[in-house]
Amino acid sequence: MMTTLSEGQKAPDFTAKDQNGNPVSLKDFRGKKVVLYFYPEDDTPTCTIEACNLRDNYSNLKEAGLVIIGVSPDDKDSHKKFEKKYELPFILLEDSSKKIIDKYEVWGEKNMYGKKYMGLIRTTFLIDEKGIIIKVFKKPKSKIHSEEILKVVNGLTQ
């Protein structure tokens, strides 16, 4: 199932632990734009490409006033290893209970090589300073995801 959340809706609030065990809430970032990106698993090929693209363009994203938060069902130890291995400069939230994943409706049927299974559907939400969703990337392009995000953000400020 693809998320039914759309532009103009309030982003569901959440609190979860980051890769360092610190609690992080969406409301902590009021006044800033947030890139909330959901990815299936730490250190897998496409997820690594996406995370490294966000890392490589982090200064541009930060300059645009964006906070990057990655969410996956992995636990904090897995996130910590992923962060260290690829020197990721942003927050990774553990969501093994799928509380955030369910709120954002990004868990559903996937199809790989004709085999259907349930899993996390890679999706990114761009959330404005007031906590409103301004863009949903339902099929983010992992290799150029930062560019996709910045294009939208730059379009907003013109």
Automatic annotation (TrEMBL):
Its EC number is 1.11.1.24. It comes from the Bacteria. The active site is at residue 47. One of its GO terms (cellular component) is cytoplasm. Residues 5-158 form the Thioredoxin domain. It catalyses: a hydroperoxide + [thioredoxin]-dithiol = an alcohol + [thioredoxin]-disulfide + H2O. GO terms for biological process: cell redox homeostasis; cellular response to oxidative stress. GO terms for molecular function: thioredoxin peroxidase activity. Keywords: Antioxidant, Disulfide bond, Oxidoreductase, Peroxidase, Redox-active center. InterPro entries: AhpC/TSA, Peroxiredoxin_AhpC-typ, Peroxiredoxin_BCP/PrxQ, Thioredoxin-like_sf, Thioredoxin_domain. Pfam families: AhpC-TSA (PF00578). Gene3D superfamilies: Glutaredoxin. It is an enzyme of class 1 (oxidoreductase). The keyword Protease does not apply. Belongs to the peroxiredoxin family. BCP/PrxQ subfamily. Monomer. Thiol-specific peroxidase that catalyzes the reduction of hydrogen peroxide and organic hydroperoxides to water and alcohols, respectively. Plays a role in cell protection against oxidative stress by detoxifying peroxides and as sensor of hydrogen peroxide-mediated signaling events. This is thioredoxin-dependent peroxiredoxin. It comes from Hanamia caeni.
